[in-house]
Write a structure and sequence with these properties.
The chain has 143 residues and is of the alpha+beta class. The protein is built from 4 helices and 5 strands. Strands 1-2-3-5-4 form a 5-stranded antiparallel beta sheet, covered by helices on one side. The longest helix is centred in the last third of the chain and has 15 residues. The two termini are 14 Å apart.
């Protein structure tokens, strides 16, 4: 995507116009903490399907970075090795408080490669695991 196209697509995202997640998704439990917020295991209210929901405070300083993340998720989440992006929602806060952005993605219950490494408790990953991870990372880059 060219820089001009990226800028144009950022301008087309109106965070304030996103739907409220109430009645669509609900938070179940915290599963991680990130730089910009917490990640929850969530659930689609009607179907019960699990989802990963990244909840972030929306501030003016971070708005462009948030828009970039949404564009990246929209563009690249259709690969089998990348969590599928389901959508973005805004949960409006009380007057004077920041709104919350909910980025909703496929829930990967087994965790990340980082989680796998942490579970080894200082031991090395098995060579066949490393080979599998490397192969799958290369598949993402080749698409």
């Amino acid at each position: 995507m060219s820089r001009e196209n990226t800028t144009r697509s950022l301008d087309s995202i109106d965070l304030a116009a996103l739907r409220d997640p109430a009645g669509i998704f609900e938070l179940v439990e915290v599963v991680g903490n990130g730089t910009y917020g917490q990640v929850y295991k969530g659930r689609h209210v009607k179907t019960g399907q699990l989802a990963a929901i990244k909840v972030m405070e929306v501030t003016e300083e971070e708005e462009e970075e948030i828009k970039l993340e949404i564009n990246m998720l929209k563009s690249y989440s259709h690969h089998r090795n990348i969590a599928t992006y389901y959508g973005a929602f805004i949960k409006k806060g009380p007057a004077g408080q920041d709104h919350q952005l909910w980025l909703v993605m496929e829930y990967c219950g087994a965790g990340s490669v980082t989680d796998l490494v942490k579970k080894t408790k200082g031991n090395c990953l098995k060579e066949d695991w490393i080979a599998y991870i490397c192969r799958e990372v290369l598949r993402v880059r080749s698409k």
